[in-house]
Amino acid sequence: MRPPIDIERISKSYEDIEALKDISFKVNQAEIFGLIGPDGAGKTSLFRILTTLLLPDTGDAYVQGYHIVKDYKKIRNIIGYMPGRFSLYQDLSVEENLSLFASIFGTTIEENYELVKEIYSQIEPFKDRRAGQLSGGMKQKLALSCALIHKPEVLFLDEPTTGVDPVSRKEFWGMLKNLKAYGITILVSTPYMDEANMCDKIGLIQNGEILSIDTPGKMTKNFDRDIYAIKTAQKHKFLLSLKSYENTHSVFSFGDSIHYIDKRNEITESEIRSSFSKMELPEFKIEKIKPTVEDCFMELMK
Q1: What is the reported pLDDT for 180?
Q2: pLDDT tens profile 124-172
């Protein structure tokens, strides 16, 4: 028995651009698997291949045991797909969009309402409003409702929270966790590293290659270097100085701080302070911190 999503050495190129390079991984039953990476990493190409909208150059993939090329019609009947760009009918109302998608799959809103109730109930008061007039968060909820209304076995969500406000993003991930109770397997892509912790397992992807696959907890636990957060009023100047510092292993901006790793991995915080004091750097605060998924990503990029 194959897992719900089984990808075997998928590659795809567009003329001289390699979008995907020998991609392989599996997603287990009722698992939320996050594909984490920046724009242009290859996430959308992989999603289009898995949802039978694009042919791979090489490799194979299976969704619920069905081959993405040989069994594409069967796959289309058992999956839900939410593309990165809002693609519903903007001139139709909320209710009309949902009814349309239900009818395409030979079902009704009433038949599977329990599955979409938590999501759809939040936009149901606006069921007569045209989809094009909805806010970003409401469009997102409508798109997810339409992807779920036929009770899919596997759900593909391509950057579903891009351009959505933080509150709606949090609500959305809460909804995804609740869908696991129905046994739905979810593959979701995102450029937001902070969303990695919402997933059961993650794959870090860059330039069409998988850098690492693990649970978020194990990935950060296996980070084998000391990392420090530095705060300073002159962040840009401090960052430039550390980039040219001979003992810098890596340094990058992270929110309102700087994340720094020293080449001398066993060096203490006081020794780092002492080293920095000799460099005529601006006033700063420094503390040792636990690594994040973004720190793991930046380290793998090296």
Answers
A1: 87
A2: 999 999 999 998 889 989 999 999 999 999 999 999 988 788 888 888 8
Structure tokens at 286: 């420094």
Q: Which is nearest to 72 in space by CA: 52, 53, 48, 58?
A: 52
Strands 32-36 and 185-190: parallel
Spell 179-190 as b/e; 16+ CB within 10 A means b. Answer: beeeebbbbbbb
Q: For residue 101, what pLDDT is reported?
A: 94
4-43: burial string, b at 16+ Cβ within 10 Å, e else: bbbbeebbbeeeeeebbeebebbbeeebbbbbbbeeebbb
| Separation CA 32–CA 188 (nearest Å) | 7
156 and 51 Cβ atoms separated by less than 8 Å: yes
Bridge-partner residues for 228, per DSSP?
Answer: 260, 288
Domains of the chain plus CATH, in order, are 5-220 (3.40.50.300), 223-301 (3.30.70)
Share of the chain above pLDDT 90, in %: 76
Separation between Cα atoms, residue 302 and residue 300, nearest integer Å? 5
Q: List, for residues 225-235, the tens digit of each pLDDT value.
A: 999 999 999 99
Residue 172, judged by CB atoms within 10 A of its CB (0-12, 13-18, 19+), counts as: buried
Is pTM beyond 0.90? Reply is: yes
